[in-house]
Amino acid sequence: MAKFFAKFTAIAILIAAFAGCSSTSSNSSMTVGAPASSFAGIDQQVRFAPWSGQSAVGQLAKPYFISFRARNAESYGHSFVAFGELDSRGNVPYDNGGVLVSDMTEIAGLHPAGGNAVYTMGHIAPVPSETGFSDGDTEIRYLQNEMTIALTPEEYRRILGRIRQLQGNSPLWHAVAYNCSSFTNKIADFMGMETVNHLLFPRNYIAALKDANSGVETLSGSVDTLG
C-alpha cells in the first residue's frame, strides 16, 4: 500500500506540473510572479485606458461585464473571472495605476485557502479552497489573456447569482481534478458557452475558450496581440 501511495503521489505531481491552473491564496508568495510584460515567451502586450470617472449603469444598454482571465504567477498561473460595471465609455474600469476600480468590480476564482504547504498538498489530495480575490488578480501588469463580454442588467443578475452559488458550493481545490479553470468552466457553461480543457495552462485555457466561442460578441478588452 505504501508503494502504491508513493507511486500515485509521484504521478499526481507529474501530471500537475504539466496541468493548467494552479493558484494560491493572497497569503502565499506563489501568486507573486513577474509582470506579464516580462513573462518568458509571452506574445502579448498589455495596455489600458483609465476609466472615464462615470459608470455605464443607466447610460448603456449593456453596462455590466464579465471577463474570463488568465494571469501570471510563479506557478502555472491562474484563471478567474472579473465582473462588475463598465465605465461610461464601455471600458472595463482601471485606475491610473492599472488596477481594477474596486467599487465597480469584483473577482471570483478558485484557489487553495492557505500558504505554500496547502498549495503543495493540493497536488496530491483536495484541500480547502477560497473563491474570491487572490494576489495579482486586479493588476493589469499580470494579465496574460482575457475574454470580456458586455452584459445587460438582467444577464448580469443571472450570472452573478450563478457565481454566488458556485462560491458557496466549491469548498475544495485540487490541481488536477478541480482547479481554477474547472470553476470558470462552470460559469461559461451557465452562460451557454462551450467549455474547454481545464488542464490547459491558464493563458492557453483562455485562448482555447475564445476559439471555442468565436461567435460570442466580446469587448476589445485590455490585451493586444502583437503582430
UniProtKB/TrEMBL annotation:
Keywords: Signal. Residues 1-19 form the signal peptide. The keyword Signal applies. PROSITE patterns: PROKAR_LIPOPROTEIN. This is Lipoprotein.
